[in-house]
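ENTRY TYPE: paired fold submission
RECORD: A
CONTENT: sequence, then structure tokens
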Amino acid sequence: AALGTAPKARQPIPWKLILSSRQMWTVAAMYFCYGYCLNMFLVWYPKYLESARGYTLKEMGFFASLPLAAGVIGDICGGVFSDLIIHKTGRIKFARQSVAIVGFLLAAICIPLAIHEPDRYLSAALFGGAVFGMELVVGNAWAVTLDIGGSFAGSCSAVMNTFGNIGGAIIATVTGFIVKAYGWDAAFYVVAAL
């Protein structure tokens, strides 16, 4: 606060309103799926490359980084594409939803193709397409919390991010059980379904 002025009184967070919002729960569920799927590539993908594809440690370093590099491009493109749609149509909700839906559909299509592709470079490109698609969603997800949360966007972001982290925590354990019982393909099918 400036010298000689009293700080503004903080408004209480309307948790009841936030937690009763259908939009908030939709965004939280979406981010749960995103957190689960992203952590497949952060936590399990190198192990998959080693045990299912027989890659050496040196090869794993290269091939495991390709999808994540594609994800960086997806992060940037998600915001750019959404902004372009907003400027063309003036429809914020449509822009956010369409980019997110296309991103998740791209991931859902690329993952099954990638696990069945024998060529390691084409498989890596398809996994890259999947992570690119998932990352198209991220900027839009955080923007949606601003759209629906207004001055309480931080609280809405916290709810969304909590569910994303729950998804990420669940995959850390669940994938081991899925792989042991049903194999790597099944673990990736769960990611594609989410």
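RECORD: B
CONTENT: sequence, then structure tokens
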Amino acid sequence: FYCHENEAGTAGIMEGFNKYFPKIKTSYVRAQTGALYNKILSERSAGRFDVDVIQLSDLAPAVDFQKKGGYEFYVSPESQAYKADHLSTPNGSFFWTGVDPAGIAYNTDKIAAADAPKGWQDIVNPRWKGSISCKIVASGLQFVQWYTLRKIYGAGFWKEFAKLNPHAFDSRVQLFDRLAKGDDMITAIGEYPAYILFKGKGAKVAFVAPPDGLVATPLVVGAVNKAPHPEASKLFVDWAMSKRGQAWYQSNPNLYYGSVRTDAPPMPTGVRLADLKLLYPADWDDYAANREVFAKEWNGMLGL
């Protein structure tokens, strides 16, 4: 299993699958989506086919992988519980196993509620210089945030953000761990699942849902072709799409994915994904075409 999730989240997905299929031995590799996708392409070009299932946090590489013929075509009987927008076109390559929404989060010991950011434009306030965080360029969600907010506020928005000398990290756990400890006052990409996890542990963090909406990325799962265990990979897809699989993804503390399954129950907070105002790229093709622009600007901002 190749997965973009942090270590605990990836292990959690395997745990959920093993709960129902204990005789199937599992292993995984985790990395941010950009690095993970480059890894599987390099391996396949070298004639290595070691992967059964891949989960990415970005629709663009998932579509590209489909165009390259990387997925095993398999229409799960569970597909009928999903809208066409949440399935590959045609159905049979991948599906949205959940959605990761993000707003702004801050340390309540460091920032009073009256002084806290209220919307996305507040994250470029010079007050946060040297004490604000974001994610690295390989993050699918970071790409979505860059793209959507750039469309709303213009290219100059991120240039102002760059002046704050933001700290960039690989996983949402790192971002919230620093936030909880007070190493950063604010994170510009506060993932709702991480907020639920840390708030539940008593961390002094607060979540802000900007009026323009929460930036969001689909979490995409598909069985890989030429897989060493093709039947097990199809079984995983069936499980991940099923009610019990989606319940696991949505309720596991290291995941808390919002389910797009049409009969999905609320998340542990009582919130349904449909209750949230979400910001997705309006044009996924244009979004994908801007990957190199994003990488150049983001790495330049981080001094890489």
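NOTES ON RECORD B: The chain has a mean pLDDT of 96. The beta strands are 2-3, 29-30, 53-56, 95-107, 132-135, 167-169, 186-191, 205-208, 214-223, 278-279.
STATUS: closed
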